[in-house]
Amino acid sequence: MSRSVLVTGGNRGIGLAIARAFADAGDKVAITYRSGEPPEGFLAVKCDITDTEQVEQAYKEIEETHGPVEVLIANAGVTKDQLLMRMSEEDFTSVVETNLTGTFRVVKRANRAMLRAKKGRVVLISSVVGLLGSAGQANYAASKAGLVGFARSLARELGSRNITFNVVAPGFVDTDMTKVLTDEQRANIVSQVPLGRYARPEEIAATVRFLASDDASYITGAVIPVDGGLGMGH
Fold first, then answer.
1. Which CATH code fits 4-226?
2. Of 48, 62, 91, 156, most Cβ neighbours within 10 A?
């Protein structure tokens, strides 16, 4: 059956690849975006997940068109990299507000319908950095690590309602964000990855789609690394 799927931050990069994977499988896919022009082929809703009212309005629009959200992929996130001594309080709090508190908002709103239906799939997009750490990314790493505790708490809280919560932790992915790096920077990154290459966004999307499938019905509270081995042991 075609499900109602929401991918936050689904207008580019990993989020867009995830949205396409679900659409290709025949699901009804809605995406949220904050700026720019959204891609065609999806129900695109402009929404800043740091604003509770915008989140509520986005869900109302999605529910009117596609029905209650049955699969939520919380992907929207930002970075403001800086060494700790130079990091402003706004740099720290704004990243946590989007990546962690924003995820809280969209998950809480989705759970309203999932509880009524007594089923649901939630996948949070974290990062290898949340497990491994990264100099200059204390704010980002803290927000992404927080998603693990958040998901595992909800897996325990709502498992009896047949709602699963899992985390995907991508490594370095070949997106517009990484294309701006110099050849030297890219080579340095790849040298740390046992598989010796960047991930393709579609490889992240395939893992997400699996976790939202019936084949993964007994998986909850898991953290799945898709990082080429970069974060092994964490």
1. 3.40.50.720
2. 62
